[in-house]
Write a structure and sequence with these properties.
Elements (H helix, E strand, L loop, with lengths): L9 H14 L8 E7 L13 E4 L4 E6 L2 E6 L5 E5 L5 E7 L4 E6 L4 E6 L5 E6 L5 E7 L4 E6 L4 E6 L4 E7 L4 E6 L4 E6 L4 E6 L5 E6 L5 E8 L4 E7 L3 E6 L5 E6 L4 E7 L4 E6 L3 E9 L2 E9 L7 E3 L6 E5 L25 E6 L1
Antiparallel strand pairs: 1-28, 2-3, 3-4, 4-5, 6-7, 7-8, 8-9, 10-11, 11-12, 12-13, 14-15, 15-16, 16-17, 18-19, 19-20, 20-21, 22-23, 23-24, 24-25, 26-27, 27-28
Length: 351
């Protein structure tokens, strides 16, 4: 995941904050920090973290942290347990019908399977693809799709047999994916700056829709009731709302730098995206064709991914302290700061 620097979007953020009160017809949303959870260093030589995943029914939040996934109690914030022994964790998915959870291990080029009750690893499915990253379950085809970022592919996994069924070339670096639960998967494609539409039953690509004015698309959310996609990208930094039936861009908003994840809450109509620059941009869906910004929540630098507990509506992000970026080189003209070891934490925001 190629991330932007903090200074790139300060002006955009000031502009957004200044305009929110005038633009919004909705009451302002007042998320604020309610808990900081410090977690010890994971095994390994590099501090790394990626997605968080909330299971509201089980009252759990799964936090990727380098070579492990930490499982937290969503109500009292205690550590329930850990899934360890991985190489570089990225995404998490749980399926109650199978009693299993699934973790994408990017450097291990596999999906690791664990028991939801014991948190013990019970199996794995090799993807043999670099940067095995995102993961989503499609109830229409009853298949799991691992999104293999830099490889630009998706591996189709049958959770019943725990085997890889097929690998599909998505054309360019792949990112977040969502499903409409009726047989379509949508994937943000960084390599083409578009959304790929995949038929989950025939496993054929049906369409490709440009995400302009959003640049390299990363975060992707879906409103299945109103058939809307929300795709957020970098360089240029925008959130776009798209028609999920034809790819038409209906609205766009400038955002801060390093967007990486987001959620859509059907019951509140809120769209939220998190950025590395330390903001969660929150919008209200006033109608199927209109989003209104309602809060630009200041978090911390590095808090690029997020999840939401749909029962409490609490926002969870993770981050660390950072070193100063290295000196620019010809090969890397815009180096990013690196996370320091031993400072990893989860931040919880409530209304």
């Amino acid at each position: 995941m190629k991330l932007s620097r903090l200074g790139l979007a300060v002006g955009v953020y000031v502009l957004l904050c200044g305009g929110y009160g005038a633009m919004s017809q909705q009451p302002a949303v007042n998320y604020h920090l309610i808990k900081t959870i410090s977690l010890p260093q994971a095994a390994g030589t590099r501090e790394y973290y990626d997605y968080l995943y909330a299971d509201p029914d089980a009252r759990r939040v799964y936090v990727t942290h380098g070579t492990e996934v930490v499982v937290l109690n969503a109500d009292n914030y205690s550590v329930i347990g850990k899934i360890t022994g991985l190489q570089q964790t990225h995404g998490i998915l749980t399926l109650k019908e199978f009693g299993k959870g699934y973790i994408t291990d990017g450097e291990g080029q596999k999906v690791v399977i664990f028991d939801l009750n014991t948190l013990r690893v019970t199996g794995e499915v090799k993807t043999d693809q670099v940067d095995t990253d995102g993961i989503v379950y499609d109830p229409a085809s009853k298949m799991i799709f691992s999104i293999n970022g830099n490889s630009g592919t998706t591996t189709v996994i049958d959770p019943k047999t725990e085997t890889a069924v097929k690998r599909i070339d998505l054309g360019g670096s792949a990112e977040a994916a969502v499903v409409d639960e009726k047989g379509l998967l949508y994937d943000n494609n960084e390599g083409k700056s578009d959304v790929v539409v995949l038929d989950t039953k025939t496993l054929a690509i049906k369409s490709r829709w440009p995400t302009a004015p959003a640049g390299v698309p990363t975060a992707l959310m879906i409103d299945n009731k109103n058939k809307r996609l929300f795709s957020a990208g970098r360089n240029p930094q925008f959130l776009v709302m798209m028609d999920a039936t034809n790819g038409k861009v209906l609205q766009s908003f400038p955002i801060t730098g390093g967007v990486d994840a987001g959620v859509f809450e059907p019951d509140t109509g809120l769209v939220m995206i998190s950025t590395r620059d330390g903001r969660v941009h929150i919008y209200h869906q006033d109608s199927p064709d209109k989003l209104t910004p309602v809060q630009a929540l200041m978090t911390e630098f590095g808090a690029k991914t997020m999840t939401i507990d749909s029962k409490t509506h609490n926002i969870w992000v993770s981050t660390s302290d950072f070193d100063q970026p290295a000196a620019p080189t010809e090969r890397q003209p815009n180096p990013l700061p690196r996370a320091k070891q031993g400072n990893f934490r989860v931040l919880v925001y409530g209304k």
